[in-house]
């Protein structure tokens, strides 16, 4: 039976309208004022916004799967439940192969992990952690299998490739109009600085950000931009965290390079004083790039406001404090890098962006949904409430208040970096392809997520 959402305000990245929305099966079939019941099940959503399901374009739900204490605390099952409960209806997870394995094998294993096990829709960025003729040949096949975006690393010794390899991969991906995201940090410099601090016996979490200062990121961003200029590929910078990196991006845009920039909630609402929390709790915030200064945070908010930053995703990569983060108790460089966040992004950005007046709700929709869908070949199936699109709809109640806490979260991890932070607004109900899958922060229909096959769109 069809569903009629009546009395809400539909919001897109451009405008808001007081209209009713009819859903039939998996799709939105009618939008208009005062729609007749016509046998539909009517849901009164007055007082609420109807938002396109949020898309998180950067999660690591299954990093190091099977590698014991280093495998992420969440998996597809728990991470996707936490996502959808709060309004994220699609994740683009980082499929990360092990050394020596093919991209195709990695795709098969990620499908096995996700299939029947995800409560939101999903697709992947395929990570390229080494470069050879076999992997080069696979690029086209992976794109034909519906994965149109890739990720490479300039840091982490187990994941990074050389500049030459990045250039070759870019040239290959560019031929097919695919999208390549890069983790921008100068890996050599990070290694040097870790060695320097460790040698001096400076082993507390306090030293983590000092091994990855803003210049380490900005240099890598600048280098990536120059390599991409040579390869004639649009640039996609993931988890950008500093003012200096944004300045490098601006220089590239002035010379007419196409640059997409992602930042994450942690860089907007947390800062680097947290590394000095007592009792080793600074380890909870160890991620790369690290949390930054208040000054960087202001520059990032400005970038979000003025459009220098295109999207906000989470880089969700959860490790428990007890038993995982504590592996680095005597050496910060052994602390697994990453923080949870797939659950909290919508409420954080609504609270600290929209209700503070920094950004409009329309802008938030661009940052968390529509512009992500456009960038990653999901639009208009995802990212917008319009006739013919998937009925991924968040019924957003702007009047609720809450407090983020590990004791109430759905993420399967023993802490949250946002503990005690107050929130305003939340998802009252979440529809995934027409099915109500969450209500008042609880999942009511599990594992309804499906793989989204993407086709390259040359319009981005
Ligand atoms: O610390 C982080 N961000 N861990 C996840 C992997 C990455 O760098 O994206
Ligand atoms: Zn990264
Ligand atoms: Zn400190
Ligand atoms: Zn990441």
Textual characterization of the structure:
The chain is α/β, with parallel strands linked by helices and 460 residues long. It has one domain (53-375): Metal-dependent hydrolases (TIM Barrel), CATH 3.20.20.140. The chain is built from eleven helices and 19 strands. Helix 4 crosses helix 6. It is globular, with a radius of gyration of 21 Å. One zinc ion binds at residues 183, 238-239. The site of one zinc ion (ZN) has 3 residues, from loops. GO terms for molecular function: hydrolase activity, acting on carbon-nitrogen (but not peptide) bonds, in cyclic amides; metal ion binding. Residues 49-436 form the Amidohydrolase-related domain.
Entry summary:
This protein is of the alpha/beta class. The chain has helices at residues 76-85, 103-114, 133-144, 163-175, 187-199, 214-231, 243-254, 265-269, 294-306, 345-354, 361-375, and strands at residues 3-6, 9-11, 16-18, 20-24, 27-32, 41-44, 49-52, 54-59, 88-95, 121-127, 149-153, 179-183, 235-237, 259-263, 311-312, 393-403, 422-432, 435-439, 442-443. It is globular and about 70 Å long.
Number of strands: 19
The portion of residues assigned to helices is 25-40%
DSSP strand content: 15-25%
Q: Let me know the CATH homologous superfamily.
A: Metal-dependent hydrolases
Can you count the helices?
11
Distance between the termini: 36 Å
Taken from the alpha-carbon principal axes, the silhouette is globular
Question: Which sequence of strands runs across the widest sheet?
Answer: 8-9-10-11-12-13-14-15
- Succession of helices and strands: EEEEEEEEHEHEHEHEHHEHEHHEHHEEEE
Biggest sheet architecture: 8 strands, parallel
Q: How does CATH name the architecture?
A: Alpha-Beta Barrel
Modified residues (N6-carboxylysine): 151
Family: Belongs to the metallo-dependent hydrolases superfamily. Hydantoinase/dihydropyrimidinase family.
Organism: Enterococcus caccae ATCC BAA-1240
Cofactor: Zn(2+)
